[in-house]
Amino acid sequence: MDESVCQAYEDEIQALEEEIRILTEKYEDIRRETTFFSDEEILKSIKLFQRETRGGTKGHESPSDLKAQLESLGTDLSFFMTFTGFQFTSHSKKIVEKTRNKTVQKHRLSGKCHSLSFQLEFQLLEMQNNEKVSAVVSDLSIIMESGEDSGVSKFVSSTEERGNLLTFFRSLSTYAEWYEHRKHTFLHFKVLYQAFI
Q1: Which residues cross the membrane (predicted)?
Q2: What is the phi/psi pair of residue 96, to 5°?
């Protein structure tokens, strides 16, 4: 192999290493800036949102107001998908049992995080005591194409055992983002390799 070709490869490798270092620093900065909320805070926000939406739809609203709200929700959803990389394609909810203080729901959810597809099925038990609401996830089943990555299979198994959806979504988001970076890097090397052949 020609020495100039070797030098070109070395220069390209150094440029990629520098790009990886910069991306890693950016990722760490974003990660430090991001505030993770506890399950309790998330549930409290969801309940507040539900109360606001229920209260807002009791009155008689004009079709133009409803259209504006729908457009606003569409914008919020688009921002959420861009920010997190999650795109939910389907969701179904079935109430299995409902009493005065207890509700059991069965949820099915599917979507993508960047280019990785996933499907979830779980039961959600909500218990209400006075104004406190507690929720427990059980019977969690996750389906993901792990390919040759045994780490994904182990992660899915441990998440199913613990039933922690928040950990699943956080970890999937991070993994899928780096999966995309790896895919682009390997594609770059493939194009570069084919150019020198």
Answers
A1: none
A2: -85, -40
